[in-house]
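Hi U.,

Before I forget, here's the chain from the pilot set. I'm dumping it here mostly so it's searchable later in email.
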Amino acid sequence: MRPRSQLFAVKPVDVLLAELAGDHRLRRVLGPVQLTALGVGAIIGAGIFVLTGLAAHDKAGPGLILSFVVAGIGCALAGLCYAEFASMVPVAGSAYTYAYATLGELFAWIIGWDLVLEYAVASSTVAHGWSHYFLSFLAIFDIRLPERWTATPIDIDPTSHLWAATGSYCNLPAALVVLLISIVLVVGIRESASFNAAMVVLKLIVVLLVIGLGSAYIRPENWRPFLPYGWGGVLKGASYVFFAYIGFDSVSTHAEEARNPQRDVPIGIIASLALCTVLYILVAAVLTGMVPYTQINIDAPVAGAFATRGLRVAVFFISLGAVVGITSVLLVLLLSQARVLLAMARDGLIPRDFFGAVHPRFRTPHKATILTGVLVATVAALFPLRILAELVNIGTLMAFVIVCAAVMVMRRTNPQLPRPFRTPFVPAVPVLGMAMNFWMMCGLGWENWTRLFVWLAVGLVIYFGYGRQRSTMARALAAELAASGASPAGRLGPA
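Structure:
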């Protein structure tokens, strides 16, 4: 029998579980409440405080309410698939690990590289949003920082699409908040989760304030026409506000740190997603009901809506909630990035000694966390927001499509494995999840597809130039070849 092809050889689940032993495992300290808080912390932030304005103004109008429903359904279908995998394979890595166990090393690398794009670029984007709201919050007290230290040194002219110097040095607040959060993450997951939980409580209070107080100022006539851009606008709005949901999948990256991952991780995923979807729909209804969609403030839509009604105290709390909310999103994104790199390093696809190192005292991937923090801070300080924001959604949607497909593959290839949580109505749920998330990918435009393909091409160069020769799968197949007496050429034969 010819040896398996390395490109499509899967990593057995028993091997994944065996990796939980030894010096490179993480500390199990998270319960269902902390995991749910991590999910809410990742989801509610820049999406609800920033993106709702542009999505309503330019893409969906009051139909933004339905855009959140569509995006939420797509995420819920993918979330059910994530929950099954997280209960079966409670190790770090999220969709990367699931792809390795079902579709093989090449697909695992593609999805892992895709997750690096999602978390790193999303972190830089969110840091920009944090900087904007932080400066707005300071302005309430007539405190203004020099523009040379609060803007990027380069930008792109939206009309000519040419690079231009701004005269600024760097966006210092964006860089500093990334570095400070990275320090918190190195200290430990328990401390990071507690810090995040405190921020989640505060921003949930602010969101409930927006819904409760804002509902008294709704004018139903502002919802007419409800679909000014038609159903196509609803799809475009869903594809755009999908960024607001990015982060619920990060709960699965912490499965290795959950006390009872088979039960707690599915609870964290489903509970955080359900709670945030309801809140998003209510906030969208309040925002578009308070202000005609053509008059919504694009930069600070929620605070702007209350400012138009003279509710200055509410504007203060909303601005404070936005700063805190975006901080917690940044924390969870940076936390998740290091866990994905840790999983890839364990497999030898990137240098294990560096990215796979776990601090002997804090039991956190400290080297990966520090490097991620420095790189994200640098990008956030130097590159403009409009370059970063559009890179994230399409990559995350692709990850969701692959995870939905992987559930069906795993059901066929490993039907005997215990599944503490089972995705209901298979194959209907995974197929619908694939269809809805691919549908939202199609609403993003060819520019985003081009950026995705360029990023993946760079990743494939790294994989074939480094990872393929040094991966643990390559060593295992070499041993298999030696035992079978086959020639090296057999490595590339059919699986």
